[in-house]
Every structure is written in C-alpha cells, then in structure tokens.
Amino acid sequence: MKWKKFTLTTTTEAVDLVSSMFDDIGIEGIEIEDNIPLTEKETKGMFIDILPELPPDEGVAKVSFYLDDDADVEEMLRKVNEGLDELELFTDLGARSIAASETEDKDWINNWKQYFKPFTVDNILIKPTWETIPEEHKDKLLVQIDPGTAFGTGMHETTQLCIRQLEKHVHSEAKILDVGTGSGILGITALKLGAKEVWGTDLDENAITAVGENLEANGISNECFHVLQGNIIDDPAVKDWAGYGKYDIAVANILADVIILLVNEIPAHLKKGGYFITSGIINMKEEAVKAAFAANDELEVIEITYQGDWVSVTARKK
Ligand SMILES: C[S@@+](CC[C@H](N)C(=O)[O-])C[C@H]1O[C@@H](n2cnc3c(N)ncnc32)[C@H](O)[C@@H]1O
C-alpha cells in the first residue's frame, strides 16, 4: 500500500504540543525523531529492550504522520496548518517546515530492527532472524528471534540474567513454565539447551503470534512449546491449562510487582526441587521481592544475580 508521509520539522520543546494537536485533528500513528536521551528517572524500572545511540541534541525534532491514498490530503494539511498557527502563539515551532514524500510502507513498526544485531550470551548466539550468522560465532548455540511487536530480543539485562540461570538448571527431559513468554526467547533458549517441553503464557496477544513464528525460525515443533494468552495469577483456566506439580523450572521475567504475586502461585506448578527463576526486578525493588520469597514456606532462595540495575532471584521448591 502506498502512503504519503509528511514530516514536520520543529523544536524539541514543541513536540508534545504538536503530537497532541495531531491527535486532536484525527491523525493516528505519528513518528517522533528527537535526539533527547531518556533520563535515568524516566527509564528506571521500565523495560526498554533496545535504546539506540543518539547523535547530539540540537533542539530540532521531527514529527511525521502518514496518510493513505484515500485521505483528503488538502483538508488534513489545512487542519495541520491551522493547528500550528494556534500553537505558534505560545511556543517556538522552529523551522515549521513540512516535507512530503511517498512510501510503500509505513514502517515505523520495523525501525528498531536496525539496532538489533547478533550478540552472544556465554556460548549462545542470539540472532535476529533477518541477519546472517557471523563467521566467528558459527560454533555457538543458535537462537533466532524476531520479537515482532512482542517483548524479547534478548538484549535486555533481565532476559540475559534469566538465560544464565537457565544454562545452570536446564537438563534434558526438563519441563519449563515460561510466564510472560513475550517473543518466546526464554522458552526457545531452554529447548535449545536441551529441555523437553515448554508451556508459555502471556497477557499480550502479540506474544502468541511471535512465539509461533520464532518456533518456525528455530525449527522447533509447536508440540514442544505450548502457548496460551492469559494470566496464571488469577485465571483458573490458565492455572489448569499449565497443570500442577509438573515443572522442573518456571521462569518469569516480569516487573517486580508481578513477580511478588507469582511467588505464591508458582510452587503449585513446580515439582519438588524445581526451580523458580525470576528477573524483571529493578534494584530498588530487590528487598520487596526477597521479602515475598522469605514469606513463602515452599520456596527457598538459592541465588541472586545482578546485571546493570537489574536483579534476578532463583529459588527452589523445598
Ligand atoms: C519483560 S517481558 C519478558 C519477555 C521475555 N520473556 C524476555 O525475557 O525477554 C514481560 C512479559 O510479561 C508479560 N506479562 C506481564 N504480566 C503478565 C502476567 N501476569 N502473566 C503473563 N504475562 C505477563 C508482558 O506482556 C510481557 O510480554
């Protein structure tokens, strides 16, 4: 499908106002190019899988929007200019120029792909499905991933913390419960490490599609990786689907507040001696998560590991 792309060059300070004006006049799906790095406060506790390196900020920002072939371009540009006239009364819009171009595809959904390159975690090579295997990593255990719009390239510290724990505890025959599976990266890595079966859940419907595609990319049968959209914490159907007392390992890389709730849910699904590998815990929540484990009689914390600002807690069912 052909799209007309319109790019407004303006100032960094005007971006929020311009974006909300675009929204008011019915423009959906804008794209912002602004070289302001997120502050530590803004990113603290947020899962951001890929943060690109940015050139220096010069106070200039671009806001783009797309119109399809059926759109009344003249009318929309009239509304945009009217909106900009109003905004100009109380903010500096800078150059305020609008450049038009034509594109086959509005590809903002895929722009992040340029920052996702093959990398290794110990002896595992994690590679975007569209890249080739680097010569120097031909001997590594290969995991191919396209997260699509789900979470999980493997680049995030928390995913890597979980992968390192999986390396320690996965054995052949292991059954794995992957809560918050996202792209399926942890379950797929476990299967590549020799696990027998994975059962994955996620609230995000995009995860279900992503897992299917990633299984195919890795040549893994979907009989080894079962996946369901839903919440194991409060949905009895999801609990029953996952089954009880059958897992050697449960892994969950989700925000600390969710891990705290999972601490009371997961033991029912683990075998005696089974491991619960967690991450997604920002360091300021470490104590709260440890307290939740300590209050649970069935689990015993056996290891805590760190990467950057993130924490991973591994426990064993007594
Ligand atoms: C940080 S991502 C982890 C994805 C992948 N496992 C990884 O390690 O890269 C967390 C995922 O958990 C999902 N999620 C959040 N709360 C959940 C819950 N209660 N049950 C299942 N999934 C949940 C989110 O939709 C998201 O896909």
Features:
binds S-adenosylmethionine; Rossmann fold; alpha/beta; elongated; 318 residues; seven-stranded mixed beta sheet; Alpha-Beta Plaits; 14 strands; 2 domains; 9 helices; four-stranded antiparallel beta sheet
Structure notes:
The chain has a seven-stranded mixed beta sheet, sandwiched between helices. A four-stranded antiparallel beta sheet has the order 2-3-1-4, covered by helices on one side. A hairpin with a 2-residue loop joins β13 and β14. With 318 residues, it is α/β, with parallel strands linked by helices. The model has no long low-confidence stretch (mean pLDDT 90). The chain is elongated, with a radius of gyration of 23 Å. It folds into two domains: 110 residues, Alpha-Beta Plaits (2-Layer Sandwich), CATH 3.30.70.120; 202 residues, Vaccinia Virus protein VP39 (Rossmann fold), CATH 3.40.50.150. Helix content is 27%, strand content 30%. Bound molecules: S-adenosylmethionine. The site of S-adenosylmethionine (SAM) has 25 residues, from α4, α5 and β9. GO terms for molecular function: methyltransferase activity. Its EC number is 2.1.1.-.
Produce a short descriptive summary.
The protein has nine helices and 14 strands. With 318 residues, the protein is α/β, with parallel strands linked by helices.
